[in-house]
Amino acid sequence: MNRTDLTRMTKVEVIIVGADAPTVLDLIRDAGDTGWTSVSGISGLGHHGHHQGRLLFNQQATLEMIITVVPDDKVDALLAGLRPLLAATSGVMFVSDTWVSRPTYFT
Amino acid sequence: MNRTDLTRMTKVEVIIVGADAPTVLDLIRDAGDTGWTSVSGISGLGHHGHHQGRLLFNQQATLEMIITVVPDDKVDALLAGLRPLLAATSGVMFVSDTWVSRPTYFT
Amino acid sequence: MNRTDLTRMTKVEVIIVGADAPTVLDLIRDAGDTGWTSVSGISGLGHHGHHQGRLLFNQQATLEMIITVVPDDKVDALLAGLRPLLAATSGVMFVSDTWVSRPTYFT
Q: What is the pLDDT of residue A44?
């Protein structure tokens, strides 16, 4: 895709247990990013076993997907912060290209 | 990725307050697109302040993520419709490449 | 995007009625993949009519989005399994590039 009226940015999606979500949001803020979207109602299976979303009696076991979009000059700082957190937990992150219409909104 | 048995299309993800979701769906329909997926249970933080999903007493403040996949010849019409809506609201959109197995399903 | 410290993989997102979700998870397992993420609270409109998420009296009509990330050598097996299921149902799949920080986690 090569759209001249859109600006390429990097989308980072983190899937993590709900208890670690505030740490992810702190890391996003520390990296100088200003916005994020969180999706609840997530369940999943990874190498560390099954995580079921929306548990009634153990909210910490629910998963969240946190999506943020950052310009290139902020990606390294964000990933550097996320790596040790993900290595220490069962979280994963997916990094991909995305294009936005209002780049200044994300800086 | 270069898969000969898949067809490249453009995925448009719009994150917007729930009250504006019907307008997004109208714009998708107006652009000649036939399908969409909506994800509820969304919260987020943007330049316009915090939006918490699943509010009990003010459904209009909940966020939705609306995903649609369109062939290239329909992208411009869709984005032209979305831009003024997003500029007037706190919504954002992410545009990216995706590949599908049944392209006629999306036209 | 060309990040030397990340590994490119293929992300497959399947949107399907909840009743077919276990079959999708079986296909992911059969393809040798070990992890997935499922998003509930999904509604959508496709060629086969409207699907509303979170129905109280007919759980089978709810939609789910199942996300998995696989290395290249497992993509073909996964897609081969998914194609007949999607052709027989109202499900769709989106295939895209993504980059991960811990590739061994996904193999």
A: 82
